[in-house]
């Protein structure tokens, strides 16, 4: 059961307003202080004062000098067991937190010898802040060895050139919408030496699938429609492979030179409502073919209802091609 560092008025917890907890990805604390919820996340809302002083020691029982992680669901479980907390109105953002207890007598040199976790990076000789940011971007977007370029604001150049020798650098993402946004904290002797929020664009030079020509919506892609080309693209612009695209239909019209992405393709429409469909019923080595009229549209491998030509029966079948299907019986495909 969680304990409170300070007992707050329980009426606050009973209020109906929403309280949001934004979990930090990594946190360092000293061993002589209790770990409270305010240390591992930013709290906003009606229950913020109540939750800020909530001691969450049960979530972290590791020894000093070691990292230990707990998930948002772990925190949710403990909040639900607290009668003073109205857990139903608490929203938790973030997957989890990695916490490290540090002895207050440790030096920066001691910290440099420890293995970093998640988005904390330890300075290597001769580095500046920009080097750490590039490494974080590569890890965040899984860029690998592809060429990378970042477009920073001109007033960020001085901070990006901040030396980080014998210092710790912490980077955490503060926004996942639009441009990349992070907060960078440079620590020296466990005190903040420099801190700044950075907002910038990221581009990667990689192979992508593009349209050779204008291709209309609904067209089934073949090799004549697509080609692979290396381009500068946003990490969010993930094109599909040619293997995944071939034989798929476009969900929207694509112009010549445009990237083909996952949201642009779908299984082709092979049966339309009212079409005459040839459906096969297979039982062992016996194949019976019947004809009927489709009662709805169906894409490849989708299930569709088919009405017999005399209108007396309706059966379900799986679309297998243009105007073709396999009848489904109670146990599955016939």
What does this structure look like?
The chain is mainly beta and 334 residues long. Among the domains are: 1-103, eubacterium ventriosum atcc fold (Sandwich), CATH 2.60.480; 205-266, Type Iii Antifreeze Protein Isoform Hplc 12, CATH 3.90.1210; 269-333, Roll (SH3 type barrels). The chain is built from eight helices and 24 strands. It has helices spanning 10-13, 37-40, 48-52, 72-80, 108-112, 129-141, 157-160, 242-245; strands at 3-4, 19-23, 26-30, 41-45, 54-55, 67-71, 90-93, 96-102, 120-122, 147-151, 168-175, 180-188, 191-211, 226-233, 249-250, 265-266, 269-271, 276-283, 286-294, 298-299, 303-308, 314-321, 324-329, 332-333. Strands 9, 10, 11, 12, 13 and 14 form a six-stranded antiparallel sheet that branches. Strands 18-19-21-22-23 form a five-stranded mixed β-barrel. It has a three-stranded mixed sheet with strand order 4-2-7. A hairpin with a 2-residue loop joins strand 12 and strand 13. The two termini are 56 Å apart. Mean pLDDT is 80; it is low at 1-16 and 111-126.
Compact summary:
This protein is mainly beta and 334 residues long. Among the domains are: 1-103, Sandwich (eubacterium ventriosum atcc fold), CATH 2.60.480.10; 205-266, Type Iii Antifreeze Protein Isoform Hplc 12 (Alpha-Beta Complex); 269-333, SH3 type barrels (Roll). It has helices spanning 10-13, 37-40, 48-52, 72-80, 108-112, 129-141, 157-160, 242-245, and strands at 3-4, 19-23, 26-30, 41-45, 54-55, 67-71, 90-93, 96-102, 120-122, 147-151, 168-175, 180-188, 191-211, 226-233, 249-250, 265-266, 269-271, 276-283, 286-294, 298-299, 303-308, 314-321, 324-329, 332-333.
């Amino acid at each position: 059961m969680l304990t409170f560092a300070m007992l707050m008025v329980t009426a606050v917890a009973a209020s109906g307003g929403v309280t949001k907890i934004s979990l930090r990805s990594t946190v360092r604390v000293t061993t002589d202080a209790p770990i409270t919820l305010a240390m591992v996340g930013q709290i906003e809302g009606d229950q913020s004062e109540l939750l800020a002083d909530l001691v969450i020691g049960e979530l972290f029982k590791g020894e000093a000098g070691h990292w230990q992680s707990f998930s948002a669901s772990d925190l949710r479980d403990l909040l639900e067991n607290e009668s003073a907390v109205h857990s139903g109105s608490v929203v938790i953002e973030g997957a989890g937190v990695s916490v490290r207890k540090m002895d207050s007598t440790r030096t920066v040199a001691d910290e440099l010898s420890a293995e970093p976790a998640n988005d904390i990076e330890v300075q290597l000789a001769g580095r500046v802040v920009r080097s750490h940011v590039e490494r974080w971007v590569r890890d965040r977007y899984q860029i690998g060895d592809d060429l990378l370029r970042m477009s920073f604001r001109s007033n960020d150049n001085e901070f990006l050139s901040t030396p980080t020798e014998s210092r710790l650098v912490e980077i955490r993402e503060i926004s996942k919408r639009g441009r990349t946004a992070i907060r960078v904290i440079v620590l020296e002797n466990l005190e903040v030496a420099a801190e700044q929020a950075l907002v910038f664009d990221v581009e990667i030079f990689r192979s992508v699938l593009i349209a050779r020509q204008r291709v209309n919506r609904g067209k089934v892609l073949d090799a004549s429609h697509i080609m692979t080309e290396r381009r500068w693209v946003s990490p969010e612009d993930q094109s599909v492979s040619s293997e995944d695209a071939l034989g798929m239909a476009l969900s929207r019209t694509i112009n010549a030179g445009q990237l083909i992405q996952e949201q642009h393709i779908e299984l082709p429409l092979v049966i339309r409502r009212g079409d005459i469909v040839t459906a096969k019923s297979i039982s062992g080595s016996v194949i019976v073919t019947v004809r009927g009229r489709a009662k709805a549209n169906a894409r490849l491998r989708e299930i569709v209802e088919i009405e017999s030509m005399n209108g007396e029966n309706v059966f379900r079948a799986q679309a297998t091609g243009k105007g073709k299907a396999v009848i489904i019986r109670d146990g599955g495909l016939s």
